[in-house]
Amino acid sequence: MAKGLELKPAQLRWQCDPKLLRFSHLKEVSSCEWIIGQPRAIDAIKLGLNVKYPGYNIFITGPVGTGRTTAITKLLDDLKVKGALKDLLYVNNFRNPDMPKLIELPGGQGRKFKNALRKLIRGLQTNIPDVFDSEEYQKRKQKVIEKYGNQHRTLLKNFEKEVEKQGLKLTTIQMGPYVRPAIVPIIDGKPVSLEEAEKLIKEGKLTEEDYKGFVDKIRDLEVDMAKIYSQIKDIQEAANSELEKLNEWMVKPVVANLVDDIKKRFPDEKIADYLNDVLNAIMSNLEKFLKKDTKEDELREYNVNVIVDNSETKDVPIIFETNPNYKNLFGTIERQAIMPGVMASDYVNIKAGSLLRANGGYLIVNAFDALIEPGVWQALKRTLRNGVIDIQVFDPFYMFNTSALKPEPITIDVKVVMIGSQMLYYLLLHQDEDFKKIFKVKADFDTVMDKSTRNINEYASFVKSICDGESLLPFSKEAIAEIVEYSVRVAGRKNKLSTRFNIIADTIRESDYWARQANKKEVRGDDVEKAIHCWRKRMNMYEEKLQEMIDNDILMIATKGKAVGQLNGLSVYQMGNYTFGRPVRITAKTSLGKAGIINIEREANLGGRTYNKGVLILSGFLRSRYAQDQPMAIDATLGFEQSYSEVDGDSASSAEVYAILSALADVPLSQEMAVTGSVNQNGEVQAIGGVNEKIEGFYEVCKAKGLTGKQGVVIPRANVDDLMLKQEIVDAVTKKKFHIFAVKTIDEGIELLTGMKAGKRKKTGFEKDSINYHVSQRLAAYANKMKGFAKPEK
């Protein structure tokens, strides 16, 4: 009768032999400057970084702490690529100010061009007034003024003579803030307005005929005066035109010469076109340069906005954007309040984002952070797909009117590296058709690596790098061996080491703390054990509360005796980053009926999908074994007693089978044992997760209630290589105070739990006095009774 394999102490925990560590003291070990245990991910990242075709951006997946950010940082630092970096500048578009022009210059030239233009404008504020103040200019200007002034005076003088011949006078009249010319009669040697002339008629000092004569003459002369003033206007325009030509003739060579010097320093077609526009704008607005108190904003249109300055960048830019909102990634156009409630902006307010600062290099962002920011994902896809970025204001709430500016789009060449979870990667892959086109490289970081001698010694290098980088105490070989053992426990397999280096690094730091508390000069193995124990103590309050309820029999768990249809299952509780196990009572009750297996957890909506699947699978196993020759006329209820939250996972399905078989065969099960393992329809016991936590949980309950030397746990044979139990349990097994059995089949497990053979199927049925025999007999009895309840056919 096979009762499963009882495991030996050596099978329960792997111990790191310090001889595996190829050094005598940690100072002999070099600090880790390479990526440990991620060859697949490293190869993928290298491919993505070096392939320069569109779409080969990188999406790095894996749990936090596996070295994702460290790896990409290290690989980018090792690249040391020298690139032809560009400075990006926006300048005023004098023809269309709402569409600023983009200028691209070699790295470091943008600042020089900005300084050159600033120097030009400041110089012109001195040079242009000097030209206008020069003797040569004043002479030429005076000639122009005299020339057209004489014409103006001659016209007016001749007209005045004509007016005086008619007995009239040319004068001016004040009309509010304005003065206009007027023709008035001369009476008694004095100019008199027509209104005053009307009064003289009433006084008898002027006849109506004389008055009418004055009015007619004035009317005719006003027509001539309009023509004269039109001629004067033409003279003034001609004078202004000639003065403008004089200004251009005197000033333009000076400005053009300075502009040509800048063109020679920056031989670029777009710069030449822009400087020509600058020259024309200066010549059209010379008055701005003649003021002594010209404000800086009045000459703002000549500023150069360097939005990306690579003057101090030696290698290709590597930008880590920790806050990837729309503004930080794509840039923006800032707005200024010019008056209450009124906002304005121009090309000087254009600001670059991380994508532009990373142009020609690499941009690293967190995928989740980017996806939760409004507008970022769609804009990022569009930018990477088209290779062009269009800087605009992003205002999803429309609190302000968006800017009318439309800066010239910028062509970019940037490699984007996103870091996220597996779930997020596959969500984007299946839900966004553009994702696979723009992120062609997936770098998957594993949580474990092989437990080879090389990797064990690389762990020592990792410990050394943490100690050197954070000034920790040196670790002894025994302490490093404890760290390696803890890594195996975290990995969950004896032949694997964990690559969750954030967890390991925290353990290293806390071990250093406890060693310093004990005034030690190096960290020893007991310090590492204490660090692990104290971490668990900080996290296990809920675990202790559950244990108190079991100790006080509030949660009923039996660790002695036998019972029919009742067994200790094992469950795992996940509390954030802390996991622990505890037993749970599983019961089964059977009766005559047609419902089959009744899953109480599912009926109460407390069963998860995996748990419900496990119950259906065990139903298939029972039918395949016992319902080949007769129907299963049975109602069997399964329940997790005192369980009030959702149950998921199929690791209790083997325990449920044992409980049902016990209830049908009316054979008691040992309550000194706890069981875990899933079952398939062939009756094979399959591997489960959390095996270490489950065993330790039942051990703690047995220890609290008193170890009898008969207690133990039944686990799947496939989980033996996962065992990395606490040393206390290994010691208990060594002393025969606790037992751990591994089984492959349901038959092995039921024999172990009942002390009765399972029984093989023969031609005449199952072996007598076996579990399977008693089960089949009970089912046959149910079937026969069910026939008696059947209604006769009509």
How are the SSEs placed, and which strands pair?
Layout (H helix, E strand, L loop, with lengths): L4 E2 L32 H12 L7 E4 L6 H12 L6 E6 L9 E6 L2 H25 L1 H31 L2 E8 L2 E10 L2 E2 L2 H10 L4 H58 L3 H16 L2 H4 L14 E4 L9 E4 L4 H5 L1 E2 L2 E4 L2 E3 L5 E2 L2 H4 L4 E5 H6 L3 H11 L1 E2 L20 E2 L3 E6 L1 H10 L3 H4 L2 E4 L3 E3 L2 H18 L6 H15 L4 E3 L2 H17 L7 H15 L1 H11 L10 E2 L2 E10 L2 E15 L3 E4 H4 L5 H18 L7 E7 L12 H13 L3 E2 L2 E3 L2 E2 L5 E2 L4 H15 L6 E5 L10 H8 L4 E5 L2 H9 L6 E2 L2 E2 L4 H19 L5
Parallel strand pairs: 2-17, 2-18, 9-14, 14-17, 22-27, 24-25, 27-30, 30-31
Antiparallel strand pairs: 1-31, 3-4, 3-8, 5-6, 6-7, 10-13, 11-12, 15-16, 19-20, 21-26, 22-23, 23-25, 28-29, 32-33
Helix pairs in contact: 1-2, 3-6, 4-6, 6-7, 16-18, 17-18, 21-22, 22-25, 22-26
Description:
The structure is a single chain. The chain starts with a strand and ends in a 5-residue tail after the last helix. The strands form 11 sheets. The protein has an 8-stranded mixed β-sheet with strand order 1-31-30-27-22-23-25-24, with helices on both faces. The longest helix is centred in the first third of the chain and has 58 residues. α1 crosses α2, α6 runs antiparallel to α7 and α17 crosses α18. A hairpin with a 5-residue loop joins β28 and β29. It is elongated. The protein is an alpha/beta fold. The mean pLDDT is 88. It contains 26 helices and 33 strands. The chain is 47% helix and 18% strand.
